[in-house]
């Protein structure tokens, strides 16, 4: 009986040691490059489309886009770039019309949409041309580098 109890303890103990420990990424930065940024606006400045490409630690020229994005920080406002671990939010800029927030989600036990990941944002400089009731805006800075830091 003691033999089986010893084996059970060894197996249970081993299974607990295999669980992934929390990851501290506070000191790790990722430098993400955003290129080919385009924003379309309808009458009254409402954003109807945004598209760009992103390159980072786990992506090269990954296409990101959204139609009728809500400008805000809320999780519900974020858009995933394809089936990748990168998400973005279009924001109102402080010094410009827009800013772009990029998130890199990590797959760690217990992580939520933004927990145990990295985040960064950058103001966007765009030049817009009007075509009828639509404004097509393109980035005047290419690529845009956004530094993502641990959350």
Automatic annotation (TrEMBL):
The protein's superkingdom reads: Eukaryota
Q: What is its main location?
A: secreted
- How far does the signal peptide extend, from start to end residue? 1-19
Q: Which InterPro entries match?
A: AltA1
Q: What GO cellular component term, any one, is given?
A: extracellular region
Quote any Pfam family the record assigns: AltA1
Q: Which residues form the AA1-like domain?
A: 27-150
The protein's UniProt keywords, in alphabetical order, are: Disulfide bond, Secreted, Signal
Annotated compartments: Secreted
What name does the UniProt record give this protein?
Answer: AA1-like domain-containing protein
Give the originating organism: Aspergillus tamarii
